[in-house]
From TrEMBL:
Enzyme Commission no: 3.2.1.52
SMART domains, A to Z: ChtBD3
Pfam families (UniProt xref): CBM_5_12, Glyco_hydro_20, Glyco_hydro_20b
GO BP term, example: carbohydrate metabolic process
Broad class of enzyme this protein falls into: hydrolase
Active site: E328
InterPro entries membership: Beta_hexosaminidase_sua/sub, CBM5/12, CBM_sf_5/12, GH, Glyco_hydro_20_cat, Hex-like_dom2, HEX_bac_N
Species this protein is from: Amycolatopsis suaedae
Keyword entries, A-Z: Glycosidase, Hydrolase, Signal
Reaction equations catalysed: Hydrolysis of terminal non-reducing N-acetyl-D-hexosamine residues in N-acetyl-beta-D-hexosaminides
Name listed for the protein in its UniProt record: beta-N-acetylhexosaminidase
One GO CC term on file: membrane
Amino acid sequence: ALALVGGATIATQAPRPAAAAEPLRSLVPVPVSAQAVAGVTHTLSASTKIYTQAGSAPARAVGDYLAGVLRRSTGFPLPVADAPSQTPADGINLLLSGADSRVGDQGYQLDVAAGSVALRARTAAGLFGGVQTLRQLLPAKVESATVQEGPWTLPGANILDYPRFAHRGAMLDVARHFHPVDTVKRYIDQLALYKINYLHLHLTDDQGWRIVIDSWPRLATHGGSTQVGGGPGGYYTKDQYRDIVAYAASRHMTVVPEVDMPGHTNAALSSYAELNCNGVAPPLRTDIEVGYSSLCVGKEVTYRFVEDVIREIAELTPGPYFHIGGDEAHATNPADYQAFMNRVLPLVSKYGKRVMGWHEFVKTTTDTAAVPQYWGTTTSNETVAAAARRGNKVLMSPANKAYLDMKYNASTPLGLSWAGYIEVQTAYDWNPGAHVSGVGESAVLGVEAPLWTETIVTPDHIEFMAFPRLPVIAELGWSPWSTHDWNSFRTRLGAHGPRWQALGIDYYRSPQVPWD
Ligand code: TNX
């Protein structure tokens, strides 16, 4: 029902060019280069086989994943076997040799010929990205969970593709409303479609603490016991969290855990009285105020607590980053904020992780390995520009462009609007490599689309806010700036509606997009 909200209908759209219906012209993110091979097609059949690089377990895993996707809708057996040689055999070939060097460690080459489909990359991550492109070259019904009628025809093509930015992320706030493991996995699968390679989990906030910390058990059992609106909340056991991390890894996605501090900590303060400067535990909060809580900077116990938390979460984290939050510390005075970060940032390094944080924190450090995540709404920010001058890489999440929790327009039933309304064109219309003055292309690590969940409760809600804007941010992070063109983009995006429908994704039918 939500998908019907939002105003205009297809009838108000200008007719779309017929050529755009061709899958090769509807890829999101658009590849670096994609040439049609006239007169050539490749049709999958009940005897199609998938061959993967002999001796490579990661390549085999990508082949098994592809087979899993295609078997559901085609009903074909699609056996997966070692590639007999580096010459593509009859069928779909996932090879770790022969790719153009420009593909780097995330890109791929995909050549669709009459006799074979050859996907080549230098890494399994590259093959995985290429598999997402391959899916988009098949009819939308390939995404269906049940067997459909073919034909399953791919257009003849030569594609060379690699990302503009190494880091393309999405954040899910599991603190304001708790989102169980299956919801997170479903979102991971949706993110993978658009070549997102980092999942940032906002694990703690005023309203909830969502992961077990063995040395401080009340964080989860008390701090996780409610959520915005007063519902029962929840938390991940360590095994559940490991399961999320492993599932993300199987989609070539790295989890970035966030423990927000020193502000946004009411759930922790409520769980342990000794963490409060006055020794009194406040009640749990289920409202959506921000900026009122702070860890007690002057107490030693604060740093024992923070070190235990960082150590236990770092142990669950194969990825390089630990996100310390650091935003909206309005209840921590600037000297205390500096003193807190002086103690805490080295703890992240001590446990082998690289610091990421909301951009405010970067004013407290000269460490050029620290990554500020820019969430401001303006195009100048001296703290972030100064960090870029020193050599820090910046992750771009401008709230008025990349925030998936902002309403599309005044009648959007979900979301907030403090950073403005974000219709699809607004989300598309910025250049991550030139958005903040003094933070140029080479200072940008990548982009992230955060989804705060004060108003977001169910998987349907997540999907309605993320689709179609998540693919927008994904394209800004992947595709060369030279391809940036709203009319081309919106037409390509419109072709994805039937794919989302087949996947059961409840998306916002923006009137700005000519939906197929
Ligand atoms: C600001 S953005 C916050 C979050 C809220 C969000 C709602 C940022 C670093 N902090 O605490 O959830 O706005 O849009």
